[in-house]
Amino acid sequence: MKTILAAYSGVKKGSGSSILSAFHDLPSVPWLTRSKVVKHLQVISVLQFVITFLAMGIGCSLLLMYMFCTDCWVIAAIYTAWLIYDWNTPKQGGRRSTWVRNWTVWKYFRDYFPIRLIKTHNLLPSRNYIFGYHPHGIFCFGAFCNFGTEATGFSKIFPGIKPSLATLAGNFRLPVLRDYLMSGGICPVNHNSIDYLLSSNGTGNAVVIVIGGAAESLDCTPGMNSVTLKNRKGFVKLALKQGADLVPVYSFGENEVYKQLIFDDDSWWRTIQKRLQKILGFAPCLFHGCGLFFPESWGLVPYCKPITTVVGEPITVPKIEEPSQDIIDMYHAMYIRSLKSLFDNYKTRFGLNESDTLQIQ
Protein backbone atom coordinates (compact mmCIF):
# COMPACT_ATOMS: atom_id res chain seq x y z
CA MET A 1 0.00 0.00 0.00
CA LYS A 2 2.84 2.38 0.85
CA THR A 3 4.47 1.61 -2.52
CA ILE A 4 1.27 2.50 -4.36
CA LEU A 5 0.87 5.77 -2.42
CA ALA A 6 4.49 6.70 -3.03
CA ALA A 7 4.18 6.05 -6.76
CA TYR A 8 0.95 8.04 -6.94
CA SER A 9 2.46 10.90 -4.95
CA GLY A 10 5.46 11.09 -7.27
CA VAL A 11 3.22 11.45 -10.33
CA LYS A 12 0.86 13.91 -8.63
CA LYS A 13 3.65 16.21 -7.49
CA GLY A 14 5.08 16.36 -11.00
CA SER A 15 8.46 14.99 -9.90
CA GLY A 16 9.16 13.84 -13.45
CA SER A 17 7.83 10.30 -12.98
CA SER A 18 5.53 9.12 -15.73
CA ILE A 19 2.57 6.81 -15.38
CA LEU A 20 4.65 3.99 -16.82
CA SER A 21 7.41 4.56 -14.29
CA ALA A 22 4.77 4.45 -11.55
CA PHE A 23 3.68 1.06 -12.85
CA HIS A 24 7.33 0.03 -12.86
CA ASP A 25 7.46 0.67 -9.10
CA LEU A 26 4.73 -1.90 -8.45
CA PRO A 27 6.54 -5.28 -8.53
CA SER A 28 3.86 -6.83 -6.32
CA VAL A 29 1.27 -6.49 -9.14
CA PRO A 30 2.59 -8.59 -12.07
CA TRP A 31 0.12 -7.33 -14.68
CA LEU A 32 1.17 -3.70 -14.04
CA THR A 33 4.84 -4.08 -14.95
CA ARG A 34 6.23 -1.45 -17.28
CA SER A 35 7.13 -3.87 -20.07
CA LYS A 36 3.65 -5.37 -20.16
CA VAL A 37 1.95 -1.98 -20.16
CA VAL A 38 4.15 -0.84 -23.04
CA LYS A 39 3.45 -4.05 -24.98
CA HIS A 40 -0.31 -3.63 -24.49
CA LEU A 41 -0.10 -0.03 -25.72
CA GLN A 42 1.80 -1.20 -28.80
CA VAL A 43 -0.82 -3.83 -29.59
CA ILE A 44 -3.66 -1.32 -29.11
CA SER A 45 -1.95 1.23 -31.37
CA VAL A 46 -1.60 -1.31 -34.19
CA LEU A 47 -5.10 -2.72 -33.74
CA GLN A 48 -6.69 0.74 -33.84
CA PHE A 49 -4.98 1.34 -37.20
CA VAL A 50 -6.31 -1.95 -38.61
CA ILE A 51 -9.85 -1.31 -37.34
CA THR A 52 -9.73 2.28 -38.62
CA PHE A 53 -8.74 1.06 -42.07
CA LEU A 54 -11.43 -1.62 -42.15
CA ALA A 55 -14.36 0.07 -40.43
CA MET A 56 -14.02 3.81 -39.87
CA GLY A 57 -15.27 4.95 -43.27
CA ILE A 58 -18.27 2.63 -43.38
CA GLY A 59 -19.07 3.18 -39.70
CA CYS A 60 -19.03 6.98 -40.00
CA SER A 61 -21.14 6.85 -43.18
CA LEU A 62 -23.80 4.74 -41.44
CA LEU A 63 -23.68 7.00 -38.39
CA LEU A 64 -24.21 10.09 -40.55
CA MET A 65 -27.23 8.53 -42.25
CA TYR A 66 -28.64 7.47 -38.88
CA MET A 67 -28.26 10.99 -37.48
CA PHE A 68 -30.52 12.33 -40.24
CA CYS A 69 -33.28 10.20 -38.72
CA THR A 70 -32.81 11.56 -35.20
CA ASP A 71 -32.98 14.88 -33.40
CA CYS A 72 -29.34 15.37 -34.37
CA TRP A 73 -30.23 15.83 -38.04
CA VAL A 74 -29.10 19.47 -37.92
CA ILE A 75 -25.56 18.40 -37.01
CA ALA A 76 -25.60 15.83 -39.82
CA ALA A 77 -26.88 18.46 -42.27
CA ILE A 78 -24.17 20.96 -41.30
CA TYR A 79 -21.44 18.34 -41.67
CA THR A 80 -22.83 17.21 -45.04
CA ALA A 81 -22.84 20.81 -46.26
CA TRP A 82 -19.23 21.17 -45.12
CA LEU A 83 -18.37 17.89 -46.86
CA ILE A 84 -19.74 19.20 -50.16
CA TYR A 85 -17.96 22.54 -49.76
CA ASP A 86 -14.67 20.83 -48.87
CA TRP A 87 -14.97 18.07 -51.49
CA ASN A 88 -11.93 19.04 -53.59
CA THR A 89 -9.50 19.69 -50.73
CA PRO A 90 -7.93 16.19 -50.86
CA LYS A 91 -7.00 16.84 -54.52
CA GLN A 92 -5.45 20.21 -53.66
CA GLY A 93 -2.79 19.28 -51.16
CA GLY A 94 -5.11 18.19 -48.36
CA ARG A 95 -4.93 19.46 -44.80
CA ARG A 96 -1.74 18.14 -43.18
CA SER A 97 -1.43 18.34 -39.39
CA THR A 98 2.01 18.25 -37.79
CA TRP A 99 0.34 17.56 -34.45
CA VAL A 100 -1.41 14.40 -35.74
CA ARG A 101 1.72 13.17 -37.51
CA ASN A 102 3.61 13.42 -34.20
CA TRP A 103 1.06 11.62 -32.00
CA THR A 104 2.70 9.37 -29.40
CA VAL A 105 0.48 6.50 -30.53
CA TRP A 106 2.52 6.24 -33.75
CA LYS A 107 5.69 5.61 -31.74
CA TYR A 108 4.01 2.66 -30.05
CA PHE A 109 2.85 1.58 -33.53
CA ARG A 110 6.46 1.79 -34.78
CA ASP A 111 7.92 -0.15 -31.86
CA TYR A 112 5.44 -3.03 -32.07
CA PHE A 113 7.09 -4.55 -35.17
CA PRO A 114 9.51 -2.53 -35.03
CA ILE A 115 9.64 -0.33 -38.15
CA ARG A 116 12.81 1.44 -39.33
CA LEU A 117 13.57 3.91 -42.13
CA ILE A 118 16.94 3.71 -43.91
CA LYS A 119 18.36 6.45 -46.14
CA THR A 120 20.88 5.51 -48.83
CA HIS A 121 21.21 8.88 -50.62
CA ASN A 122 20.42 12.52 -49.93
CA LEU A 123 17.40 14.12 -51.58
CA LEU A 124 17.52 17.75 -52.73
CA PRO A 125 14.72 20.06 -51.51
CA SER A 126 14.98 21.83 -54.87
CA ARG A 127 13.54 18.77 -56.64
CA ASN A 128 10.24 16.89 -56.52
CA TYR A 129 10.06 13.11 -56.25
CA ILE A 130 7.85 10.11 -56.85
CA PHE A 131 8.65 7.29 -54.42
CA GLY A 132 7.70 3.85 -55.68
CA TYR A 133 6.89 1.76 -52.60
CA HIS A 134 7.22 -2.06 -52.67
CA PRO A 135 5.73 -4.44 -51.68
CA HIS A 136 2.12 -3.61 -50.80
CA GLY A 137 1.70 -6.17 -48.03
CA ILE A 138 -1.78 -6.44 -46.54
CA PHE A 139 -2.05 -3.02 -44.86
CA CYS A 140 1.11 -1.14 -45.99
CA PHE A 141 2.28 -0.79 -42.40
CA GLY A 142 5.74 0.40 -43.43
CA ALA A 143 4.40 2.96 -45.90
CA PHE A 144 1.98 4.45 -43.38
CA CYS A 145 4.40 4.58 -40.45
CA ASN A 146 7.30 6.05 -42.43
CA PHE A 147 5.44 8.49 -44.68
CA GLY A 148 2.07 9.08 -42.98
CA THR A 149 3.58 9.85 -39.56
CA GLU A 150 6.82 11.17 -38.08
CA ALA A 151 7.37 8.08 -35.92
CA THR A 152 10.56 7.11 -37.79
CA GLY A 153 11.70 10.72 -38.19
CA PHE A 154 11.27 11.23 -41.93
CA SER A 155 11.60 15.04 -41.76
CA LYS A 156 14.88 14.71 -39.84
CA ILE A 157 16.30 12.01 -42.09
CA PHE A 158 15.26 13.88 -45.26
CA PRO A 159 15.25 17.58 -44.30
CA GLY A 160 13.29 19.83 -46.63
CA ILE A 161 11.27 16.95 -48.13
CA LYS A 162 7.52 16.68 -47.47
CA PRO A 163 6.07 13.18 -48.06
CA SER A 164 2.51 12.57 -49.24
CA LEU A 165 1.38 8.95 -49.18
CA ALA A 166 -1.12 8.23 -51.97
CA THR A 167 -4.00 5.85 -51.31
CA LEU A 168 -7.38 4.90 -52.79
CA ALA A 169 -9.37 7.95 -53.90
CA GLY A 170 -12.56 6.26 -52.64
CA ASN A 171 -11.39 6.69 -49.05
CA PHE A 172 -11.72 10.46 -49.42
CA ARG A 173 -15.42 10.18 -50.22
CA LEU A 174 -16.15 8.77 -46.76
CA PRO A 175 -17.00 11.17 -43.90
CA VAL A 176 -14.51 11.69 -41.07
CA LEU A 177 -12.10 9.12 -42.54
CA ARG A 178 -11.16 11.63 -45.26
CA ASP A 179 -10.22 14.25 -42.68
CA TYR A 180 -8.30 11.70 -40.62
CA LEU A 181 -6.27 10.64 -43.66
CA MET A 182 -5.58 14.21 -44.79
CA SER A 183 -4.24 15.11 -41.34
CA GLY A 184 -1.43 12.59 -41.90
CA GLY A 185 -0.50 14.09 -45.26
CA ILE A 186 -2.21 11.26 -47.16
CA CYS A 187 -3.66 12.07 -50.59
CA PRO A 188 -5.76 10.34 -53.29
CA VAL A 189 -3.80 8.31 -55.81
CA ASN A 190 -5.17 10.05 -58.91
CA HIS A 191 -3.77 12.38 -61.58
CA ASN A 192 -5.37 15.55 -60.21
CA SER A 193 -3.97 15.12 -56.72
CA ILE A 194 -0.48 14.06 -57.78
CA ASP A 195 -0.25 16.73 -60.50
CA TYR A 196 -1.14 19.40 -57.93
CA LEU A 197 1.51 18.25 -55.47
CA LEU A 198 4.22 18.08 -58.14
CA SER A 199 3.37 21.22 -60.10
CA SER A 200 1.48 23.69 -57.87
CA ASN A 201 2.98 23.05 -54.47
CA GLY A 202 6.57 24.22 -54.96
CA THR A 203 9.50 21.84 -54.61
CA GLY A 204 10.63 19.38 -51.96
CA ASN A 205 7.52 17.21 -52.42
CA ALA A 206 7.69 13.42 -52.40
CA VAL A 207 4.56 11.57 -53.51
CA VAL A 208 4.68 7.97 -52.28
CA ILE A 209 2.83 5.53 -54.56
CA VAL A 210 2.39 1.86 -53.70
CA ILE A 211 2.95 0.72 -57.27
CA GLY A 212 1.61 -2.82 -56.99
CA GLY A 213 -1.64 -1.65 -55.43
CA ALA A 214 -4.47 -3.95 -54.48
CA ALA A 215 -3.49 -6.56 -57.08
CA GLU A 216 -0.14 -7.08 -55.40
CA SER A 217 -1.73 -7.62 -51.98
CA LEU A 218 -3.27 -10.87 -53.27
CA ASP A 219 0.24 -12.36 -53.49
CA CYS A 220 1.57 -11.12 -50.15
CA THR A 221 2.64 -13.92 -47.84
CA PRO A 222 5.70 -14.70 -45.69
CA GLY A 223 8.75 -15.62 -47.76
CA MET A 224 7.36 -14.02 -50.93
CA ASN A 225 9.68 -11.55 -52.67
CA SER A 226 7.53 -10.52 -55.60
CA VAL A 227 6.28 -7.14 -56.82
CA THR A 228 3.68 -6.21 -59.44
CA LEU A 229 5.57 -3.80 -61.68
CA LYS A 230 6.13 -5.18 -65.16
CA ASN A 231 3.08 -3.47 -66.68
CA ARG A 232 2.80 -0.57 -64.20
CA LYS A 233 4.16 2.41 -66.14
CA GLY A 234 1.70 5.18 -65.29
CA PHE A 235 3.89 6.49 -62.46
CA VAL A 236 6.84 6.80 -64.86
CA LYS A 237 4.73 8.83 -67.28
CA LEU A 238 3.66 11.11 -64.41
CA ALA A 239 7.28 11.58 -63.38
CA LEU A 240 8.29 12.53 -66.93
CA LYS A 241 5.43 15.00 -67.34
CA GLN A 242 6.33 16.76 -64.08
CA GLY A 243 10.09 16.30 -64.17
CA ALA A 244 9.98 14.51 -60.81
CA ASP A 245 12.81 12.15 -59.94
CA LEU A 246 11.95 8.49 -59.39
CA VAL A 247 12.99 6.87 -56.11
CA PRO A 248 12.65 3.10 -55.54
CA VAL A 249 11.66 2.09 -51.99
CA TYR A 250 11.61 -1.47 -50.66
CA SER A 251 10.30 -2.60 -47.26
CA PHE A 252 11.90 -5.80 -46.05
CA GLY A 253 9.48 -7.67 -43.79
CA GLU A 254 6.26 -6.09 -45.08
CA ASN A 255 5.03 -9.48 -46.30
CA GLU A 256 5.92 -11.26 -43.07
CA VAL A 257 3.38 -9.74 -40.65
CA TYR A 258 0.32 -11.66 -41.87
CA LYS A 259 -0.31 -15.13 -43.28
CA GLN A 260 -2.60 -15.27 -46.28
CA LEU A 261 -4.44 -18.03 -48.09
CA ILE A 262 -3.35 -17.66 -51.72
CA PHE A 263 -5.48 -19.28 -54.42
CA ASP A 264 -4.32 -20.57 -57.80
CA ASP A 265 -4.72 -18.15 -60.70
CA ASP A 266 -7.18 -20.46 -62.45
CA SER A 267 -9.35 -21.07 -59.36
CA TRP A 268 -12.83 -19.56 -59.04
CA TRP A 269 -11.88 -18.07 -55.64
CA ARG A 270 -9.13 -16.09 -57.36
CA THR A 271 -11.56 -14.97 -60.04
CA ILE A 272 -13.96 -13.68 -57.37
CA GLN A 273 -11.13 -11.82 -55.63
CA LYS A 274 -10.08 -10.09 -58.85
CA ARG A 275 -13.62 -9.11 -59.77
CA LEU A 276 -14.28 -7.68 -56.31
CA GLN A 277 -10.97 -5.83 -56.54
CA LYS A 278 -12.11 -4.07 -59.72
CA ILE A 279 -15.49 -3.20 -58.19
CA LEU A 280 -14.34 -2.16 -54.71
CA GLY A 281 -10.89 -0.80 -55.50
CA PHE A 282 -9.20 -3.05 -52.94
CA ALA A 283 -8.52 -6.76 -52.79
CA PRO A 284 -10.56 -8.95 -50.37
CA CYS A 285 -7.67 -10.99 -48.96
CA LEU A 286 -8.17 -14.00 -46.69
CA PHE A 287 -5.47 -13.43 -44.08
CA HIS A 288 -4.81 -13.75 -40.38
CA GLY A 289 -2.37 -12.66 -37.73
CA CYS A 290 -2.41 -13.56 -34.04
CA GLY A 291 -5.15 -13.17 -31.46
CA LEU A 292 -5.47 -10.21 -29.12
CA PHE A 293 -5.33 -12.26 -25.92
CA PHE A 294 -3.84 -15.56 -27.12
CA PRO A 295 -0.88 -15.17 -29.53
CA GLU A 296 -1.25 -18.79 -30.67
CA SER A 297 -4.78 -18.13 -31.95
CA TRP A 298 -5.82 -16.42 -35.18
CA GLY A 299 -6.79 -12.77 -35.20
CA LEU A 300 -6.32 -9.32 -36.73
CA VAL A 301 -3.22 -8.41 -34.73
CA PRO A 302 -0.16 -8.67 -37.03
CA TYR A 303 2.83 -10.77 -36.06
CA CYS A 304 5.79 -8.95 -34.48
CA LYS A 305 8.14 -9.02 -37.45
CA PRO A 306 10.67 -6.25 -38.18
CA ILE A 307 9.86 -3.99 -41.15
CA THR A 308 12.82 -2.07 -42.58
CA THR A 309 12.07 0.47 -45.30
CA VAL A 310 15.05 1.35 -47.49
CA VAL A 311 14.84 4.49 -49.65
CA GLY A 312 17.05 4.02 -52.71
CA GLU A 313 18.99 6.27 -55.05
CA PRO A 314 16.92 8.82 -57.01
CA ILE A 315 16.77 8.51 -60.79
CA THR A 316 17.00 11.94 -62.40
CA VAL A 317 14.06 12.42 -64.76
CA PRO A 318 13.74 15.22 -67.35
CA LYS A 319 10.49 17.13 -67.81
CA ILE A 320 8.77 16.05 -71.03
CA GLU A 321 5.16 17.20 -71.47
CA GLU A 322 4.30 14.45 -73.95
CA PRO A 323 6.76 11.58 -73.44
CA SER A 324 6.83 8.89 -76.10
CA GLN A 325 6.27 5.26 -75.22
CA ASP A 326 9.94 4.51 -75.92
CA ILE A 327 11.03 7.12 -73.36
CA ILE A 328 8.54 5.77 -70.81
CA ASP A 329 9.79 2.22 -71.39
CA MET A 330 13.41 3.33 -71.01
CA TYR A 331 12.89 4.99 -67.64
CA HIS A 332 10.67 2.13 -66.50
CA ALA A 333 13.51 -0.31 -67.26
CA MET A 334 15.93 1.96 -65.37
CA TYR A 335 13.59 1.96 -62.39
CA ILE A 336 13.33 -1.85 -62.36
CA ARG A 337 17.13 -2.20 -62.48
CA SER A 338 17.49 0.30 -59.63
CA LEU A 339 14.87 -1.53 -57.51
CA LYS A 340 16.53 -4.90 -58.08
CA SER A 341 19.92 -3.43 -57.17
CA LEU A 342 18.45 -1.96 -53.97
CA PHE A 343 16.95 -5.33 -53.05
CA ASP A 344 20.18 -7.23 -53.76
CA ASN A 345 22.37 -4.80 -51.84
CA TYR A 346 20.32 -4.97 -48.64
CA LYS A 347 18.61 -8.37 -48.62
CA THR A 348 21.20 -10.21 -46.50
CA ARG A 349 21.21 -7.43 -43.88
CA PHE A 350 17.53 -7.95 -43.18
CA GLY A 351 17.09 -11.69 -42.93
CA LEU A 352 17.14 -12.90 -46.53
CA ASN A 353 19.61 -15.27 -48.18
CA GLU A 354 22.10 -14.35 -50.86
CA SER A 355 20.25 -16.70 -53.22
CA ASP A 356 16.91 -14.87 -52.80
CA THR A 357 15.84 -12.83 -55.82
CA LEU A 358 13.20 -10.21 -56.43
CA GLN A 359 10.50 -11.41 -58.82
CA ILE A 360 8.97 -8.77 -61.11
CA GLN A 361 5.45 -9.65 -62.22
TrEMBL record:
Please indicate if the UniProt record lists Disulfide bond as a keyword. Answer: no
Q: What is its EC number?
A: 2.3.1.-
| Top EC group | transferase
User: Main localization of the protein?
Assistant: cytoplasm
- Superkingdom is Eukaryota
Membrane-spanning parts: 41-58
The record's Gene Ontology cellular component field reads: endoplasmic reticulum membrane; lipid droplet; perinuclear region of cytoplasm
- Protein localization: Cytoplasm, Perinuclear region; Endoplasmic reticulum membrane; Lipid droplet
Q: How is it placed in the membrane, per its record? A: Multi-pass membrane protein
Q: Name the Gene Ontology molecular function terms of this record.
A: diacylglycerol O-acyltransferase activity; retinol O-fatty-acyltransferase activity
Per its record, the protein catalyses: 1-(9Z-octadecenoyl)-glycerol + (9Z)-octadecenoyl-CoA = 1,2-di-(9Z-octadecenoyl)-glycerol + CoA; an acyl-CoA + a 1,2-diacyl-sn-glycerol = a triacyl-sn-glycerol + CoA; 2-(9Z-octadecenoyl)-glycerol + hexadecanoyl-CoA = 1-hexadecanoyl-2-(9Z-octadecenoyl)-sn-glycerol + CoA; 1,3-di-(9Z-octadecenoyl)-glycerol + (9Z)-octadecenoyl-CoA = 1,2,3-tri-(9Z-octadecenoyl)-glycerol + CoA
Keyword terms, alphabetized: Acyltransferase, Cytoplasm, Endoplasmic reticulum, Glycerol metabolism, Lipid biosynthesis, Lipid droplet, Lipid metabolism, Membrane, Transferase, Transmembrane, Transmembrane helix
Q: Where is the signal peptide?
A: none
Please give one Pfam family short name: DAGAT
**Pathway where it operates:** Glycerolipid metabolism; triacylglycerol biosynthesis; Lipid metabolism
Q: Does the keyword Cell membrane apply?
A: no
Family membership, please give it.
Belongs to the diacylglycerol acyltransferase family.
The protein's name is: Acyltransferase
